[in-house]
Amino acid sequence: MNGNNHVKSEDALREYNVNEFVTPDGYTSDIAIFTITSEKKQEYKPPIMELKIMLIKRALVNAEEKPNIEGGKWALPGGFVSHNEAGGYDAALRELAEETGVKGLHLKHFGVYDKPGRDPRGWIISNAHYAIVPERYLANRKAADDAIEVELFTLKEVFSLSLSFDHMKIIEDAIKIIKRDIAETTVAKHFLPKEFTASELRVLLQLVINEPVVKEDSAFSRKIGKLPFIEVVKQRDGSLKKSQRNSKTPSQLYKFKDINEEEFVRSIYSAKY
Amino acid sequence: MNGNNHVKSEDALREYNVNEFVTPDGYTSDIAIFTITSEKKQEYKPPIMELKIMLIKRALVNAEEKPNIEGGKWALPGGFVSHNEAGGYDAALRELAEETGVKGLHLKHFGVYDKPGRDPRGWIISNAHYAIVPERYLANRKAADDAIEVELFTLKEVFSLSLSFDHMKIIEDAIKIIKRDIAETTVAKHFLPKEFTASELRVLLQLVINEPVVKEDSAFSRKIGKLPFIEVVKQRDGSLKKSQRNSKTPSQLYKFKDINEEEFVRSIYSAKY
DNA sequence: CCAAAAGTGTTGAGCCTACACCCATGA
DNA sequence: TCATGGGTGTAGGCTCAACACTTTTGG
């Protein structure tokens, strides 16, 4: 399976022979890029939002004019981890920056796909990530070398496509995880502008989480200001900052507090039911 | 970096050459095995519990009598994913069964460690998992081929050891994750017998989560029965099943309901604060 | 002044905390 | 009967759901 002989010599251990164990044939990072398209139907109306995922169409031939693996199918953006990168997350960051032209976007690793046979080229291991990218950054997207087309699909649309490799399974998992994360963590903030109105957050949550987890009532606007991870935005002079972008009535702007998500533990045993 | 030529031929794509990209030198699965030692000081007293992690001491020489990499240091149990396994999780399951002699234990993947340089032998990728193993299964533990010693360490002790590779970092991450999981999911059940008393669960939670997340009061025994994922244990005839193992007064036994953890979403937006 | 979104007032229900107290049992 | 862990009774407080209602504003 392997003819590799690359050994870093270290003190007495230089006898080690890498031949002794099996090695993968490749190591890649794939990214499920989510965005929410936000369409303003009219002035003074909350926007119509839709959750979409960005896919690329794999080229029919590669750079050397040879037939490309899984060419012509839609796939998650991604690629091989190159040797000068500090691992799969780094590679995913680079891919994400290449696809969107923007750095510093939200990216999270959520799984490893390593079943032999998932890629016809050999035993290729994929690190799966999801990214949240505000719609405006996808405007200036550009196709990478081996991609010929880029497109946003609704979740419904994506399930009717024929995807490359095991990307359908990866996307299914990504959707589950992003839904859970939006409900249970504050990642929703990456879909929203820094300062947002109660209705914007409410529409987003109802879009992603169907359940009656979010009260549709006016109760939400009353509760949002009391949530421990959200605060009202004030102006310099201390007065409340409001916006009229969704209604004639000025509505309060909120923002997510700068908290350490890691330390924000909500025990199921002390929760109130 | 690579001399590999293993290509699965597939329809028109047989021209593909694996040489074109960089491959890892190895793919391993490591497991942080947690257990809670439960010492009964006296009859009719709740046990004294302590959270521990199982480590192995790497042999000084390997099977071929050559000096072993990182020999003599404590390390997480684990090993290379072999070619007939369906990926890293499978390999971890095998390792866990080998270390404990028991199958079907709780095992969860929580991260990938793939920074070049983390292993002196080359670019070796590790899938990190944590396992929860009831203490009794660690009694009949046996050292694997390349291990000479097995020992349980308290979390305090482990931080004063010199560990192999980046295992200290992996363990730190594992501890964070298992603490969060115990607070936010029902994995605590894997530390407990199927039927447990309120005090057993309370001691466990207080052991792992220091915060005042769990009220020390008698309030806990009142609340536990109302938690949506726990139910009281009844006897055949419908009467409540009680135990006297921790006190002279018979105390109620509880068990975790069989729920789908995945679908048990607790939105931070609808939570009560 | 109308329409529409934002937000307030109010009431009753349910859960939580705290504290005091009772219960069951082996020694 | 005592010591001890387990469990109950109750009052006050807080949050929440629900419903009706008011406010703000551009057109």
TrEMBL record, chains A, B:
CDD domains per record: NUDIX_NadM_like
Coiled coil start-end: none
Domain of life: Bacteria
Swiss-Prot/TrEMBL keywords: Hydrolase
InterPro entries (UniProt xref): NUDIX_hydrolase-like_dom_sf, NUDIX_hydrolase_dom, WH-like_DNA-bd_sf, WH_DNA-bd_sf
SUPFAM superfamilies per record: Nudix, Winged helix' DNA-binding domain
Molecular function per GO: hydrolase activity
Transmembrane segments: none
Nudix hydrolase domain sequence ranges: 26-179
Membership in a protein family: Belongs to the Nudix hydrolase family.
Designated name of the protein: NUDIX hydrolase
Organism in which the protein naturally occurs: Bacillus spongiae
Taxonomic classification: Bacteria, Bacillati, Bacillota, Bacilli, Bacillales
